[in-house]
Write a structure and sequence with these properties.
Elements: E1 10-11, E2 23-29, E3 35-42, H1 45-52, H2 54-68, H3 75-89
Antiparallel strand pairs: 1-2, 2-3
Helix pairs in contact: 2-3
Length: 92
């Protein structure tokens, strides 16, 4: 099944560079370098980071399923991708 969401990577500006009154943008960057807005939300920086990491987390979960079923030999690479997605979700 093909994804129906805007493809990643998604990102949010670094903490301290948000809109006034705690509004955060979540954007996607295309290979062309063009950015497109995904959402403008009134929330915490932590929530904005979690939202921006959604495509990475989805990809990591799908890779983990393929690795668990034996379809992927490079399990170390899958773990590294998963750790990177989790770090992004935490704003690290």
């Amino acid at each position: 099944m093909e994804a129906k969401h805007t493809p990643g990577p998604w990102f949010t500006p670094p903490e301290g560079r948000n809109f006034p009154d705690a509004w955060w943008s979540v954007d996607a960057r295309y290979a062309s370098g063009k950015n497109i807005g995904i959402a403008l939300i009134s929330t915490s920086y932590a929530d904005a980071c979690l939202m921006a990491a959604a495509p990475d987390l989805l990809a990591a979960c799908e890779q983990m399923l393929h690795a668990a079923s034996g379809e992927i030999d490079d399990v170390h690479g899958v773990f590294e991708n998963t750790k990177a997605a989790i770090a992004k979700a935490k704003g690290e």
